[in-house]
Amino acid sequence: MAGILTTEQIASVVLDAGVVYIDYKGIGEKILAPTRGGNEFKVEQTFKEVSVDGQRGKTKGMRRIVTEDASLKVRLMGLTQENLKLALPGADLDSTTKAITNGGGKILDADYIPSITLVVPNMAGNNKVITLYNALHDGGLTMATTDKDEVVVELVFYSHREPTDSTVSIYKMEEVTT
Q1: In this predicted structure, what is the pLDDT of residue 1?
Q2: How many structural domains comprise the chain?
């Protein structure tokens, strides 16, 4: 059993919780907030079996993906008014007072985050960079306070397709050499 791991396998181990960015590498790049409890990227696919008479079970080449969605779960500690607004699409954020109020019930294009990115290092010193496009949190807001503890708000951002071009990617996973 000596030598069961390769150097490449060790180098590919992803470390720590990573950092979440809005508009990573863009003009408006910013770190979203401190997090606690890690972050979670998920791609969910729904498969359909293409069945034909005489088929006895799952058959190679006879399955297709009918839906595919991507999400990024973030556990935020930095509760700025701007971050709280991300939890409430359709709400209004007053630019002067910074007060958040319920909006008119319409989700505007401006409520979608063009890109939200999780950057996580690996043992090789490179970064795994995972980006969701047209991201929107639609799970409401729960903020629980506890004596002698900090507030952590869990937001799940879902990527959305472009309405005029369904072939545009909703997520991207890269390994970037640092």
Answers
A1: 60
A2: 1
In a domain, 54, yes or no: no
User: The tokens of 157 are what?
Assistant: 């951002």
Q: What are the average pLDDT values for consecutive 10-residue runs of the chain, which has 178 residues?
A: 83 92 94 95 96 91 95 96 96 95 93 97 94 97 95 97 94 93
DSSP summary character for residue 20 = E
Separation of first and last alpha carbons in the chain: 33
56 part of a folded domain: no
Q: How far is CA 113 from the centre of its chain?
A: 11
Q: Which amino acid is at 151?
A: V
Residue 132 resides in a domain: yes
Cα–Cα nearest to 115, from 37, 17, 14, 27: 27
User: According to the model, what pLDDT value does residue 105 have?
Assistant: 87
Task: Tell me which residue range forms the domain holding 151.
Answer: 9-39+75-176
Tell me the whole-structure pTM to 2 decimals: 0.91
How far apart are the C-alpha atoms of 120 and 47, rounded to whole Å? 29
Burial of 176 (C-beta count, 10 Å sphere; 0-12/13-18/19+): exposed
Whether residue 46 lies inside any domain: the answer is no
